[in-house]
Amino acid sequence: MSICLAVDIGGTKIAAALVDCTTNHIIERHQIATPQSQQPAIFSTALTSLLMPLAPQADFVAVASTGIINHGILTALNPDNLGGLNRFELVDDIQRITQLPTHAINDAQAAAWYEFISLNSNNSATNMLFITISTGIGGGLVLNRQLQTGTRGISGHIGHTVVDMNGPMCGCGRQGCIEKIASGTAIGMAGTSLFNRVCSGQDVYQQSLEGDSDALNIIHSSASAVAELIANLTITLDLDVVVIGGSVGLAPHYCDYIQQYINEKPEYYRPCIVSAQAGSNAGLLGAASWFASQENY
Ligand code: BMX
Ligand code: ZN
Q1: The 3-state secondary structure of 170-234, one letter per residue
Q2: pTM, whole model, 2 decimals?
Q3: Distance between CA atoms of 179 and 196, rounded to whole angstroms?
Q4: Which atom in ligand 1 lies closest to the alpha carbon of residue 139?
Q5: Residue 36, Cβ neighbours under 10 Å: how many?
Q6: Which tens digit of pLDDT belongs to each residue from 32-59?
Q7: Fewer CB atoms near the end CB (10 Å): N or C, the chain?
Q8: Which residues on adjacent β-strands are paired with residue 126?
Q9: Can you cite a GO biological process for this protein (predicted)?
Q10: Is-same-fold flag (3-109+280-292; 123-277)?
Q11: Which one, of 160, 225, 158, 155, lies nearest residue 187 by Cα?
Q12: Closest Cα to residue 180, out of 195, 198, 165?
């Protein structure tokens, strides 16, 4: 029986779990907040405290991380999402901490792989897109049943496609990216300027659930922008299924709102929309199962 120490590094939290690779079940799981500091040393200390107690029970480490992962190095496409941390030797650092063989891919790519495996136990999706609407907006593509990681690790970074050419400047250096308009961070910023007090995305969402119509409008503009993105990618890639995940994507009714906007579109723009099966564990389980198979090393 092989045990994987799976790590999911997001803009808001870092989760670590021991995963039984035979059954793909989580044995033990811990979570900390992502340090909001530009300093690699602080990031590394946080990883050490989370991973050290779990490492002795594991055979290898599989990391799903926000950012572009290329040859084990994490580069933030949008450094604003990672407390300003821009470039980090992720695999070397975790290998040093745990003394275990370590492998890494992007968080949304990992989650896409897990969701694809889950779907295909009772379905036959060929082309699937996973979207996480969370601190940022990430994506993972499975085309012709193959996970696309890209030669430079970039594949699936759909959060940085433009939905409003006159929109706000994104941390990646492009103007009007969907991440700047529809992510949890963007929802929080829209609430902050509308209500004239500091709001998180979660605050705004909660208000929408309590019936505040301004908050609900913010959530609807996010869902409608995501529906446009889904329609664009469906007509480009012939998607069968789009899986929605992330803290905003899995919030009550959000997926229904997306479905509502998709229903208004002509037939060819309407893939099947489903919620992520693994919930917030998709990144952990996806990285574990992707790297557990020798050929993916
Ligand atoms: C950003 C980008 C993606 C990531 C996505 C979701 C960075 C640091 N991250 O678009 O790599 O997949 O956010 O990340 O540039 P999350 O932190 O919201 O899970
Ligand atoms: Zn961008």
Answers
A1: CCCCCECEHHHHHCHHHHHHHHHHHHCCCCCHHHHHHHHHCCCHHHHHHHHHHHHHHHHHHHHHH
A2: 0.94
A3: 22
A4: 12
A5: 12
A6: 999 988 899 999 999 999 999 999 999 9
A7: N
A8: none
A9: N-acetylneuraminate catabolic process
A10: yes
A11: 225
A12: 165
Residues 6+ apart with CB under 8 A from 137: 131, 158, 159, 178, 179, 182, 183, 226, 246
Q: What percent of the chain is modeled with pLDDT above 90?
A: 89
The tokens describing 102, both together, are 């370590």
- The domains of the chain are located at 3-109+280-292, 123-277
| Strands ordered across the beta sheet of 68-70 | 68-70, 73-75, 87-88
How many CA atoms lie within 13 Å of 98's alpha carbon, on the beta-carbon side?
A: 29
Q: Which residues surround ligand 2, an ion (CB under 5 A)?
A: 160, 170, 172, 174, 177
In angstroms, rounded to a whole number, what is the distance separating the alpha carbons of residues 229 and 224?
Answer: 9
Judged by its nearest atom, the ligand closest to the C-alpha of residue 175 is: 2
Residues touching ligand 1 (Cβ under 6 Å) are: 10-11, 66-67, 76-78, 81-82, 106-108, 132, 134-138, 157, 159, 179
3-state secondary structure of 293: coil
Helix (H) or strand (E) holding 73: strand 73-75
Q: Does the pLDDT of residue 255 top 60, yes or no?
A: yes
Q: What is the CATH number of domain 123-277?
A: 3.30.420.40
Secondary structure letter of residue 14 according to DSSP? E
- For 3-109+280-292, give the CATH class: alpha beta
Indicate the angle between helix axes 213-237 and 184-195, nearest 10 degrees: 150
Query: How far, in Å, from the CA of 173 to the mean position of ligand 2?
Result: 6
Asked whether 24 and 285 are in contact (CB, 8 A), the reply is yes
